[in-house]
């Protein structure tokens, strides 16, 4: 692990002035902090992107954290719901979403005279369905954590050592991941999921996904927190029905990443990355 961190430092040292696509999660926070350590605050820019498909709280938290780390922050935005390829919500849509993001960041980096755009992709991402990898490669964005062959468990341990406050922060993902492929995205569905998850989180649930199946809300939480959901079943039922759901269910398999991919045939998973 320490050798990988040393390699990361060597990669960063020769980069000059860099932009970090900063989400406020542990991976991009570790990239930002290490870039600051190796290049100095004046040569690192944290770019925080507001999106219709991510929580406003995530955007605000990322801006706050970047300021706490002590690097310049640039706030910008993209509009994914104006792109029909993204709205279509196919497996390919993840590629187009990342393509839009990386194109926006590259244009910004060129305008500001920055040498590289860095993201927070890690080795674990190579084992999942990640069309964004193709878009990343096409855009020439550098995934320095992958280049140093760092995994999530290692990044969390290293982040704890340097006192990053998000070292144990749960992973977040686009709200579009809550909606089954083939169902078009729109602001109403995104807002339903957003409000439902915020409500359940405020009850003390640390990790929750509300999957949107038309009039059915399928709640995924960690197995050890299912009892907490059931204790608050009446509150949750009332709130989610007020958001427009008719039926509220809890997934007995619990929270897991990429659960919407479980029903995809193999050829669909290969459509972008193959």
Features:
about 270 residues; four-stranded parallel sheet; 12 helices; globular; alpha/beta
If you had to describe this structure to a student in words, what would you say it looks like?
With 274 residues, the protein is α/β, with parallel strands linked by helices. Helices cover 46% and strands 13% of the residues. Strands 3-2-1-4 form a 4-stranded parallel sheet, with helices on both faces. Strands 5-6-7 form a 3-stranded mixed sheet, with helices on one face. Helix 1 crosses helix 2 and helix 2 packs across helix 8. The longest helix is centred in the middle third of the chain and has 20 residues. It starts with a helix and ends with a helix.
Terminal-residue CA separation: 31 Å
Which stretches of 5+ consecutive residues score pLDDT under 50?
Answer: none
Strand order of the largest sheet: 3-2-1-4
Written as H for each helix and E for each strand, in order along the chain, the element string is HEHEHEHHEHHHHEEHHEH
Q: What number is the mean pLDDT?
A: 91
**Tell me, what's the shape?**
globular
Question: What's the total helix number?
Answer: 12
Class based on secondary structure composition and strand pairing = alpha/beta
